[in-house]
TrEMBL record:
One of its GO terms (cellular component) is membrane. PANTHER family: TEICHOIC ACIDS EXPORT ATP-BINDING PROTEIN TAGH. It comes from Quisquiliibacterium transsilvanicum. SMART domains: AAA. This is Lipopolysaccharide transport system ATP-binding protein. Keywords: ATP-binding, Cell inner membrane, Cell membrane, Membrane, Nucleotide-binding, Transport.
Length: 433
């Protein structure tokens, strides 16, 4: 029987990397002779990273440029030593970092195959058995015995990719490698990586294409300015990361959002599913007030609800009291991200709903959303009570509940488009059939 440690392919404990930055080249020489004085400043490229990856698992590494992704991959590949902490890998490691960086430009393609494959741990016999397949996959057959300095950039990276993915690695490190080559080669490289993953190889995958992370990976790690912001299941990491990217596009000094938000527990409305309705109150004078809110998802009532994207039905009942001498209030339903970014809303006013109430000014406003078009993730449900013109706000309860939606596809973005696909019928788009 194999022990638990035997199942760990990558183990990173407190790993960090610090670089010395010198203002002038001469400062390096001064530092060598005058060690008691510091002629450099320190740059923390990576700070205290901890995780374990089991055999056969795939982890996506995400973050903006300069986040420390490449530094982390280099530590695991063994091309850079950590300044502190430890990095351990088990088995043969192949890294697709800077494709072709190990090629000798004066050597032929064939000679570089033997050189690089040997560096990755293959014997000459093993290389002999694979060389034809490597050449065929790279598509450089007519040029294989020419110096690689005569290759186009596409031929260069295709050959490097073919070598690195042909050595049966136990650990494969991929840094934006699926963007190499033309469309046909990108498809083949995609299929090759999928085959390697299905074969039980542990994969570290770094990409700015989040849908690729969604397709390839079981877990994800988000880095920002050298620090781990979140690690866990792919949807749980990509959702807040996408929200951060939305802010980062407009402000490059934006910082990651806190993981929680909204009202404090003492500010929220009571959970009616647990404690029943709050006691009735007299109609307020000159205003309206939310009395209670019930939220149901697929018939289940509560404040933490689970459902399915494009399937589940959300129902919200807003019990209110109002001054009977005033026109009946209007209401709004708001769905937001966990950081508070509004993703969608609907108002009773714009739909022309006439709100009914009793002589005492009390009433119930109901709203339902069928086949919720939000992508997988956890969302806030909020309700707002406005005056009859939708201008003055009487009150709000946001969040009054959270819904967690599940979806099996790799689609990105907050919304799932209710699109109709077709093929082979020129009238399809015009008729919608």
């Amino acid at each position: 029987m194999s022990s638990e440690n035997d199942e760990i392919a990558i183990e990173v404990e407190g790993a960090g990397k610090t670089y010395r930055m010198y203002a002038h080249p001469s400062d390096r020489l001064k530092q060598a002779f005058f060690r008691r004085r510091r002629y450099y400043t320190e740059f923390e490229a990576l700070e205290k990273v901890d995780f374990r990856l089991r055999r056969g698992e795939a982890m996506g590494i995400v973050g903006v440029n300069g986040a420390g992704k490449s530094t982390l991959l280099q530590l695991i590949a063994g091309t850079v030593e950590p300044s502190r902490g430890s990095v351990r890998t088990r088995g043969r490691v192949a890294a697709l970092l800077e494709l072709g960086s190990g090629f000798n430009p004066e050597f032929t393609g064939r000679e570089n195959i033997y050189l690089n494959a040997a560096t990755l741990g293959l014997s000459k016999r093993e290389i002999d058995e694979r060389v034809d397949a490597i050449i065929e996959f790279a598509g450089v057959g007519p040029h294989i015995d020419q110096p690689v300095k005569t290759y186009s950039s596409g031929m260069y990276v295709r050959l490097a990719f073919s070598i690195a993915t042909s050595v049966d690695p136990d650990v494969l490190i991929v840094d934006e490698a699926l963007s190499v080559g033309d469309g046909a080669f990108r498809r083949r490289s995609f299929d090759r990586i999928m085959q390697i993953k299905e074969g039980g190889t542990t994969i570290l995958f770094c990409s700015h294409a989040l849908y690729q992370v969604e397709v390839f990976c079981d877990r994800a790690l988000w880095l920002h300015r050298g620090r781990v912001q979140k690690i866990g299941k792919v949807p749980d990491v990509l959702r807040p990361y996408q929200e951060f990217l939305d802010a980062y596009v407009n402000d490059m000094n934006a910082e990651p959002f806190p993981s929680s938000g909204g009202l404090r527990p003492e500010d929220r409305l009571p959970d009616d599913s647990a404690g029943g309705l709050p006691p009735a109150v007299a109609a307020p004078r000159g205003e309206a007030r939310i009395q209670s809110v019930q939220v149901r998802l697929d018939g289940q009532q509560g404040t933490e609800l689970h459902g399915r994207s494009l399937v589940s039905r959300l129902e919200v009942d807003i019990d209110f009291v109002s001054d009977p001498s005033l026109p009946a209030p209007t209401a709004a339903l708001v769905l937001s991200s966990e950081s508070g970014k509004i993703l969608g809303s609907c108002l009773s006013l714009t739909q022309g709903v006439v709100v009914e109430r009793g002589p005492d000014g009390a009433g119930v406003i109901r709203v339902a959303v069928d086949r919720i078009p939000l992508n997988k993730g956890r969302y806030r449900v909020g309700v707002y009570l406005f005056c009859e013109r939708g201008i003055h706000g009487y009150g709000m309860a946001d969040p009054v509940a959270h819904i967690s939606l599940h979806h099996g596809g790799p689609e990105q973005g907050a919304w799932l488009l209710n699109a109709a696909w077709g093929s082979g019928n020129s009238d399809f788009l015009a008729t919608g059939q």
